[in-house]
Structure formats: C-alpha cells, structure tokens
Amino acid sequence: MKQKLLLGLFLLAGISFSQAQGLPENPEPGKCYVKCITKDEFKEVEETLQVYPAYTTLQVVPAVYKTVEETVLVKEASKKYVYTPAVYETVEVPYVKKEGRTDLRVVPATFGKDSNTYEVYPKTSGWEYKILEDCPSVNKEDCVAACFVEYPAQFRDVPFTTLASDATTNGIPVDEQSTTYKKRVIKTPARMDEIEIPAEYTTITRQVVETPATTTSVTVPAKYETVTRTVLAKKGGITTWEEVECELLNPTVLPIFYELASARLTPASKKVIDETLLPLLNDSNVSIEIMSHTDSRGNDDYNKSLSQQRANSVVNYLVSKGVSRSRLTARGFGESRLTNRCSNGVDCSEAEHQRNRRTEFRVINN
C-alpha cells in the first residue's frame, strides 16, 4: 500500500514534468506505461531469378560388358610312381568288328516315245512355160504359154526316244557288327609304374566389353529460383504509450519446465504460451523479452547454449502464431540465475533441479 501511495504522489507531482517530456497525459495512479515505437512494417514479395544458365554437357554412356565362360588349366598333367605290384582286372571292351555300310542298288534310266513333224521341202512357186498342143505355127515358140505355178511344202513325221528318268541308286543300309574283347587293365597301380595324372581344368567367368563406352550430348535447362524479399511497406517511428500491469515489467515465470538437456516445447507448454503471452501481444503493441534458464548440472558453456535454444523455442513458436519477430527478444542465462541452492556440487532432488529449468518473460520498451 505504501508503494502505491508513493507511486501516486510521484505521478501527481510529475504531471507537468510528463507533459514537458512527452510522457502519457492523464496517467492513472498505480498504472505503468511503456513507450512503444511503432515498427517499420514490411511485406514479402517473390521474384523468379535465373540462378544457373542453361548449358550442354556430355554424358558418358558406360561400356556394356557381357559375361563369358572359359575353361582354363588349373593343374598341369603330371606323372607319379608307385612301388607296389599292379593288380589287374579283366574287362570287356566293345568294339566294331565290321563297320556298317550302305549298299547301292542301281535303278536304270527309263525312256519314252515321241515324234516331231519336220518340213523336208519348203513351199515353192514360179513361172512355168508350156507349149500348147495343136499349135498351127511351124515355130513352136509362137505357141508358148507362161503359167505361175505354186507347190506346197513337204513334211515328214520323225519319231524319237525321250528320257523319262535318269539312272539313280538306292541306298541299302547294312548294320555294323559289334563284339567285345577282353582286356586286362590296372585296377591298382603298381609300384614304380608310371601313372599319368591328367591335367585339371576349371571354368571361369570373365567380363568382356560388348559395347564400348560412348558419349551423348545432354542439354541441361536453366535453373530458376523463387526468391522471397522483404521490402518496407510502411515506415514506423511513431511513439505511443501502452498501459501495462506493473508486475509485467518484472520477470514473470511461465510454468514451462523442460526435460533434462532438451529445448522441446511440450503440448502443455504451448498451451501456457497461448493463454499467457499471445493475448498480451495481440491486444497491445508492447514488446517482450523471453529469458530461459537451466539447472546447474552439465558444462557451463553447454548450459548457456541450451538456455538460448529454449528461449529461441518460445520465440519461434510465437512467430509461428503470427507475432512479429521484431517484438520478441530471446536471452539464455544458462545456470547463472538459479532460484534455489542447487548449484554445482550440491545434492538436490529432481524436482529442485526442474524449478531452475524455467522460462520467464517481462515487458520491455522498444
């Protein structure tokens, strides 16, 4: 009560001073005011820029291989010697006593009969002179008559023999004659007898070039990128005064507690932000400072970084809700502002450590 009274007296005494200094007019006793300078307003525009030109490249089409199999020698043929008498066994070996053959039987040629008509004398014509009978003239030439006479051609049929089919042969197979002979073969090699050890082979696979490597020309299109630029939409700088509750000017603890070594906001923490900070920011133009802390466990530098990450988590969440980042300040204090005795080396419960993993906020002038 005493503090409120002093504050009221100070406000009454300072009315004329506030007018001279550009302070809020007609302030209410017990109220606090923060000066808010309107921020520049920005908007984002998108532009499409060519970030890489079109060009032509050569692409190598690799050679195509195929797999082939080859039989290779892996052990050369050799000889060995044994020193025991040979043991023989008798086997029957089949062989062809008389090879098969094919006998040939001759099929004689066959003939036919035919005939052709041939012209043996051609058709003829010409003038013939005849002496008329009973010619009264002594000179017979006086009784000569010229006649044009034509004789037909003369033909004769000539028979001949034709070949109906030429002589051929028919094959008559005769089966081979097989039999066997007995042969004594070595069952167990004798000592000091030379034994041939055959060569050994194996099949290997290898790859050979089926199609040599080639190149193809490929046109790479230009690359474009849409760039979002922030441009000034409205110039700020106008000073206004916002009435706030006085306790908001001091650090206020938000009931946001983090897991050990984590900056993740839980759904419960997001709900606290929605119910506490968002209404304050949406209903006024004030700016706030987010202050995050850690417990004493762990490296000091690590805790400093972790606390900054925790403050950034709150700021980023508020930005995702539409609050301008220019109205938000994130500060991490690490383990430098513990709320209890749980400093380095002090044995504390998990609940006591958790109270130090906190986030605070306060309203600030901007």
Descriptive report:
This protein has 366 residues and is α+β, with helices and mostly antiparallel strands. Among the domains are: 103-170, no CATH class; 247-364, 2-Layer Sandwich (60s Ribosomal Protein L30, Chain: A). The protein contains 5 helices and 22 strands. It has helices spanning 2-13, 15-21, 267-282, 300-320, 350-356, and strands spanning 32-37, 41-52, 55-61, 64-75, 78-82, 87-98, 101-107, 110-121, 124-131, 144-151, 154-165, 168-174, 177-188, 193-197, 200-211, 214-220, 223-234, 239-244, 252-254, 287-292, 328-332, 359-364. The strands form 10 sheets. It has a 4-stranded mixed β-sheet with strand order 19-22-20-21. The two termini are 30 Å apart. The relative contact order is 0.19. Residues 1-21 have low confidence and may be disordered.
Extract low-pLDDT stretches: 1-21
The SSE order reads HHEEEEEEEEEEEEEEEEEEEHEHEHE
CATH topology of the domain at 247-364, by name, is: 60s Ribosomal Protein L30, Chain: A
Number of helices: 5
Class of the domain at 247-364, according to the CATH hierarchy? Alpha Beta
Mean pLDDT, nearest integer? 80
Helix content: 10-25%
CATH architectural arrangement of the domain at 247-364 = 2-Layer Sandwich
Over all CA atoms, what is the radius of gyration? 64 Å
Give the structural class. alpha+beta
Oligomeric status: single chain
Shape: elongated
CA distance, first residue to last residue: 30 Å
Question: What percentage of amino acids are in beta strands?
Answer: over 45%
Strand sequence of the main sheet, in spatial order? Answer: 19-22-20-21
How many individual β-strands? 22
CATH superfamily of the domain at 247-364: OmpA-like domain
Biggest sheet architecture: 4 strands, mixed
